[in-house]
Structures are given as C-alpha cells and as structure tokens.
C-alpha cells in the first residue's frame, strides 16, 4: 500500500511538472509572429508521416539511420510496457497484462529485443560521439553543456534499458524458483543471459527486481522532465514541426507584405500611403521571428547534419546552421524567463543579433538550402539568417561595403555591377 | 558566324506587329560577363536553330532583384520586381526562359505574389524538351562522345526548385562517359556564389568554397564539368584556376555543350 502511495505521488508530481514545462514552451513559441501553416492538411499529414514517423530524411545516412531506428522503435513500443508499469504501480498488481497469455509472452519477447537494440545503439552512439572523429559531433557550439547533454541522454537510455533487462532477469529467475508472487509470464530471450549474474537468494532477487522496477519508472519520469531543458524534445516536436513545414519550393522566400505596400505607394503616387505601422523590418530578436522559426528551435536535437552540409562551415567559416538554431532557442528561453519574471518583456540590452549571432556568421551564408535539405525534421535555419540580414540592411544599413556597392549598382544601373543600362544588349550586336 | 545571328528585342517585334512565343530572359551575368555572354549566345543559337519565335527585352531588362533579396534588401528587390513586372505585363509576356537559375527562381516563385504570373522555365528544361521532341539531335561523332563529363547542380535549380533530371537528360544524349560528383543532386555542394556572395569577399576561413567544390570535380576524374548557372561558371573556373587544372578540366554550360554537339 505504501508503495502505491509513493508511486502515485511521484507519478502525479512528474506529470504536473511536465505539464508546466510544456505550457512554458508553448507560451514561448507563441511569442513568434503569425504565419499561416494550416493550409493543405492532407499534404501536411503525408509529409509528417513520411519525414517524422517514417524518418525518410534520416536514411540519407543509412548506418546512423538504422541505429536511430532501433532507439526510436524501441522507445515507442516499450511505452506499452510503461503503461503496464504505471497500472501495476497504481494498483499494486504485478504484470497486469500477463492475463493476455501467449500474446503477452510475445510482447515481452519483442520488448526484450527492442531494449537490446536501444542499448546496443546507444553504446555505438556514445562511441561515435566521443571517440570517433565525426565532423558533425565537433564544432564550437557543441562544447560544454550541449556535449554533456547528449552524453547524459545516451547514458540515461542505457541505464533505463539495463534496469529493464535486470528487472526481467530477476523476475524470470523468481519464476523459475516458483516464488508465489511471481507467476509464470513473459518470454526472456535477452535477459536470460543475465541469469548467471544473479544470486540464488529469493530475498535478494526480489530486492533486485523491485529496485530495477523503481529505477526504471523513476528514471522514465525523470527523463520526461529532463526533456524540456535538453536538446531531446525532438521526440515529441518532430511531429508538429514536420506537419507545419514550408510546402513551397525551397528557393521561394516570402515577400514582405509591408514592403509591398510601401513600394506600391512609391511607384504610384495616386495610391494612399500604407496605414499599418510596421514595428520593425527583419529580425533583431526572437520576437521578430515567426512561431514556426521558434518551434524549429525547440525541435532541434543538435545532430549537426545541417552544419556538416553547410558550404561555409565546411570551408572553415564561422557560420554553423546548428548554432543558429541553438542560439535562437537559448535566447528564446532567456526572453521567456524575462517575461515570466517581469510580467512583460524588460529590455535586457541583449538581442539575438550580436549578443548571440554575429554579423560574420550571417554574411557567410550562400542561401544554398543545404542545411534545410539536410535536416531530418524540416528545420529551416536559412529563414532566420535572412531575417537577421533584413534587419541589418533595412533597419541599420549595416551591410558589408561591397554589398552596399552592389545595392547602389542595382538602383542606378539595374545590374549588380557598374555597367550602364544602355549597354545591356551590346553582346547581341557584336 | 556569331555576327550574322540577329537577336530580336520584344519592342522591335511588337513594332513589326509580331509577338514572341517565348521571352529569353538573359540576366545580368549573361548580358555583361564576357564568359557568360558565350552561354547567352549558345542559347540564342539553339533557339534560332529550332525556329522558336523568341525575343529579348534588351535594354528594358533589369536585374530581377535576386541578389538584393538574398542580401536582405527587400525594398530594393520589390522595386526591381515591380518595374520588371510592369514591363513584362505591358508586353503581355506569358512564357519566359532564363539562362540563370537565380533569375529562374525569382521570376517563377517570387514574382506571382507581386502581380507577375508567367510560365518560367530554365534553359536546361527547354533544351531537354527540344531533345525529347526530336528537334535537337547531337551531330554524328560529336566532340563529346566518350568524354568523361560531370554535372554540377546549381543550388537554385536543384535544391531550390528540384530540377535535377532535365540537365542530366540533356547530357545523356551525348554518348559521353557521364559521372556524378560525390555530392550531387539534393546533396550537391554550392559553388559559393549564392546569397549575394558573388558580390563580396568571403568571410575568413580555411579555404574558398569553389576550391572545395573543384576538389570534388578532380576526384571524379571528369575532363568537362557541366554548369547550368553563370555564377557557378565563374566560381568553378576560378576554382579550376586555383587548383592549376586549366589544362585538364574544362567548365562548360549545358547550353554550350548542346550547341557544340549540334555543331551550331
């Protein structure tokens, strides 16, 4: 009975804290500007199904994709086991689903192999991340906390799966010893190999089984609440993020409607001047981004496929699309805290541009869309970079000198170079 | 022979009471850059050869505004766009072929919302359809037969608009030894010119992007790299020069290759 009460309290606490974190993130995303991404629902569902559920873009790199698939499928399906653990915990039962008979045995059989797949993949991931020199796992933005974060997640998953397998092994051994509280249920293709490691004493076995059970469930509840402060939110946000993807060609950049009004009024003086007050052209801080840009930032799991494909980054420039996303998320979290503390945003003399992202980074982009193409969950760092450039150019007139010269040529000669408009067709007369 | 080709302007055609079936949008590079002018002329030769009624805007053409937009100057972009749209709509233009993927992308994707609705194709798509219709056929024993040729995907044709097949199909009819670069199609590596980089010095780094790309070309052991963008052309040629491979590797536009293969 005591166990049930403790379980209930822990479970309720975990759910409440998670709900609060989820609400905080939702509110932060809502700080972004409006953008319509709810058209063409069928197309969007299809895209989500292919890219998030089917992990289509992951398979551009088959080896990590297969290992990741092991973790992904394992994670999804072992959640059925979690359901059983929660029911057992709340009602004091033991393996409640075992009344399903041979179907249950089949389930446990599958879980065992999946747990092994998760364990195996995570070990390989740890080795890849820490010992093999893989380009996307290096980079200046992946030092310190982000590096620890990634390792913590992998170690947590390894510990959770180890606990799960030891729980099963102890349970199996107790079943073999015909302990009355452990009825025969399940099939243990993996954990059977752990039997020789276990003692013969039933009381110690029960201790191991109970410890592993509690460790597993507390671990999962803790992991649930670690998600919102880690890079790992993609396991949830990958789905909405792919659903709300840009459906137009990647080369199509939005035309700013506020500019259209002004330009129309400039070209045709008979039109009334635009009425709507534009607060700011381009992106200075996270509030100037769209909610989809902000959702992108929370979805990013820092895998670095974008950065490894970025022509600027791989030739040694400062720009890293992954850092753009991480900076956006970090600044957004800071702005969110600022608002929570002061009830409205108080100027903190910081901004996304300069404090987080430097001019050198934004001007190194070739707008080639390699980062957008590479992202397995359809994040668009390019849109943020262009927004920052728009702020630098239209609000501050702070473009590199040669870019300003190009603008001047465009205005005066209708070409980016210093050639006279009248000479444009000279080639056709040679 | 180049001198004999008369390239009509839309204004000239209208004055004669005629109308072009397709507008050839030359672009700034194709108009002013000496190397790109040769691509422009190759396209004209092809259009002339197949008897398409085409015209250029001549001095009435203006930059589409692409470099301004990618550099963050939305005002300048929209000014350029609206002036161009006024000219194009004034001439009731419905179909445009461009020699540059940047012009192609901007005209096709970013003009409609500002009032410019045209059917826009890139010259590799036009050439591909002419080949498919049987109007273009490489001459027997064309000079590319058996040559090792690779193709560099321009970002604004490939990833930006998912045109991957048309340029490849144009090269396939040459009976050449075609080889892909290790980073190709949606994984293609930028030449380094996009996003207005063409008009500025690169940021400090280990090497230039075009050099990185030319290393892919060298690795492919191709003797000809086909481009489909005047900016890629400049960057690849500079990269080949930087690697001192001018004797071994030639950079040619798909249109130039087609014109040569057809002995135009």
Automatic annotation (TrEMBL), chain A:
Q: Does the keyword Plastid apply?
A: no
The UniProt entry, under InterPro entries, shows: 4Fe4S_Fe-S-bd, 4Fe4S_Fe_S_CS, HdrC_iron-sulfur_subunit, Helical_ferredxn, NarG-like_sf
Superkingdom is: Bacteria
| Regions crossing the membrane | 5-22, 65-87, 107-127, 148-169, 181-199, 211-229
Tell me the first and last residues of the signal peptide: none
Q: Does the keyword Ligase apply?
A: no
Q: How is this protein named in the record? A: (Fe-S)-binding protein
UniProtKB/TrEMBL annotation, chain B:
InterPro entries, sorted: Cys_rich_dom, HdrC_iron-sulfur_subunit
User: Which domain of life does the UniProt lineage start with?
Assistant: Bacteria
Transmembrane segments in this chain: where?
A: none
Can the keyword rRNA-binding be found in this entry's annotation? no
Q: Does Transcription regulation count among this protein's keywords?
A: no
Per UniProt, residues of the Cysteine-rich domain are 23-108, 149-237
Keywords noted in UniProt: 4Fe-4S, Iron, Iron-sulfur, Metal-binding, Oxidoreductase
Q: Which PANTHER family match?
A: IRON-SULFUR-BINDING OXIDOREDUCTASE FADF-RELATED (PTHR43255:SF1), IRON-SULFUR-BINDING OXIDOREDUCTASE FADF-RELATED-RELATED (PTHR43255)
In its UniProt entry, what is this protein called?
A: (Fe-S)-binding protein
